[in-house]
Design a protein that fits this description.
The protein has 266 residues and is α+β, with helices and mostly antiparallel strands. The chain has helices at 71-84, 109-134, 140-174, 231-264, and strands at 7-11, 14-18, 23-26, 30-34, 39-45, 48-53, 63-67, 98-101, 176-186, 189-195, 201-206, 212-217, 225-226. The chain is flat and about 80 Å long.
Length: 266
């Protein structure tokens, strides 16, 4: 028995796929699913391929055409689809075709980072130029960047410490506590294995600990797990959160003060 090949044709922003079942045509904004019974014939000519749907009477047949494809690929695609067509196509092929809209593709992570960097960096540079031109002392422009830097450091500290402090409060009270057993070392860290209520095993890495430790995980997401800290450790987490928030707030206040001085012209 000969297996049906899985064929892909790419032409511009269109993609044709066939693996023995319906032909799919992927466009930039939608995707067409074309059953074999809907197809009258497939025509390959040079670097283009046309899928002509069955039509009855005087109705003009619907044609899906993809250009700028591989010439050899177009011939192979047309031969494979033609060989799989039923003996008698449906009277109205267009009625069998289903079309579904496509979601916009998510912006690549690198492009998002550049967009965020530009959205933050351009206004900051503009404010620094304003301070350098209008503030009574030139070093105010340097102080501006120091304030922005420490505001960012404080914000990151408040975010990371605050998230950990929240988990240390929430998961031991509302999560599920299990025993993690040491299995091996990796990158100078100890790896413990624990099992959730569904019997699935997970790994947790930490810098140190005995052969068995207690772990608290979220019942909705067993990979969201913490090793419950001591009361002192939880208090220090809250303190770190407050220190970071105070640093960020104070430095932002300094930035506002510098900009105000520059706007007023000293």
């Amino acid at each position: 028995m000969t297996a049906t090949p899985s064929l892909v044709l790419r032409g511009g922003e269109s993609v044709l796929r066939f693996a023995g079942g319906p032909v799919t045509l992927h466009r930039t904004d939608k995707e067409h699913h074309i059953p074999l019974a809907a197809i009258s014939f497939v025509h390959a000519e040079g670097r283009s391929v046309a899928i002509v749907l069955a039509a009855s009477g005087a109705n003009e047949p619907t044609i899906y055409r993809v250009t700028d494809v591989s010439e050899a690929g177009a011939l192979a695609f047309a031969d494979a689809v033609t060989a799989a067509l039923p003996a008698a196509p449906a009277p109205d092929g267009a009625a069998l075709v289903t079309t579904s809209p496509l979601r916009a593709a998510p912006e690549p992570a690198r492009a998002r980072r550049w967009t965020v960097a530009a959205a933050v960096g351009v206004p900051l540079v503009a404010l620094d130029v304003l301070i350098a031109l209008r503030a009574p002392r030139g070093e105010y422009a340097l102080v501006f960047w120091l304030a922005v830097l420490f505001a960012g450091v404080g914000g990151l500290l408040a975010r990371s410490a605050g998230r950990e402090a929240y988990r240390q409060w929430y998961l031991p009270r509302h999560g599920i506590t299990v025993v993690g057993r040491f299995t091996h070392h990796t990158n100078h860290r100890k790896v413990y294995r624990y099992t959730d209520v569904d019997g699935v095993e997970h790994d947790y890495a930490t810098s140190s600990g005995p052969d068995e430790i207690e772990l608290a995980h979220d019942p909705r997401d067993p990979t969201r797990v913490i090793r419950p800290d001591t009361p002192y450790g939880r208090v220090m987490g809250v303190v770190a959160t407050l220190v970071g928030a105070a640093m960020a707030a104070g430095c932002l206040a300094a930035v506002v003060a510098l900009v105000t001085v520059a706007v007023r012209g000293g």
